[in-house]
Design brief:
This protein has 8 helices and 4 strands. The chain is of the alpha+beta class. It has 3 domains: 39 residues, no CATH class; 55 residues, no CATH class; 59 residues, no CATH class. A 4-stranded antiparallel beta sheet has the order 2-1-3-4, with no helix packed on it.
């Protein structure tokens, strides 16, 4: 009894608040509840593309790449470039679910292109490593340069290749000089 009195009493104070809107009247007239309209909406979810194969192109080099479990794509630009020309564009292409080819181009800045070219040429000096003729201070300087430029993975790989080519005495000397260079 009290509930009805309060509800009717408040409704009686401002009857304009209780008027039905035009949209509500139309829904009642059509007999379509709001719940059905909500259920009919299309939902689109974008999930990461796991183990999705793409093709990366930098200059004339083409390499197949694959996304990881989380849909992330790692592109090793240094392994994609040619040692003669500075790259200007990274192109990723793939076939979408409809089978049509999708292509995205990513321009590379001049500074990044120059750095990639310099790093590639630096790595090229050590493709044929001769442990006896290798200048250890120069090799350590080049390893530090690669690390400083952000090519840490390549610097570590090159360091391992250099170590395998050195005899025991030179390897110890290389390790000492490397530790000194990293400390100082």
């Amino acid at each position: 009894m009290t509930k009805d009195l309060l509800a009717n009493g408040v409704a009686g104070i401002n009857p304009l608040m209780n008027m039905e809107s035009h949209a509500r009247r139309e829904k009642k007239a059509l007999g379509i509840p709001e719940r059905e309209k909500i259920d009919q909406k299309l939902e689109k979810s974008e999930l990461p593309l796991r183990q999705f194969t793409l093709t990366a192109t930098v200059g004339t080099r083409v390499a197949p790449l694959e996304t990881d479990e989380n849909g992330r794509l790692s592109v090793d630009l240094l392994s994609l470039i040619d040692s003669n020309t500075a790259p200007a564009m990274l192109t990723l292409s793939a076939a979408n679910t409809d089978g049509e080819q999708v292509r995205h181009e990513f321009p590379l800045t001049r500074q990044l292109s120059a750095r990639l070219l310099q790093a590639r040429q630096l790595m090229g000096k050590y493709e044929q490593i001769d442990g006896d003729k290798l200048e250890l201070p120069k090799a350590i300087e080049d390893l530090n340069t690669l690390s400083r430029w952000g090519f840490e993975h390549h610097a570590r790989r090159l360091e391992q290749r250099i170590r395998t080519q050195l005899d025991d005495e030179r390897r110890l000397s290389f390790d000492r000089q490397l530790v000194q260079a990293l400390a100082g």
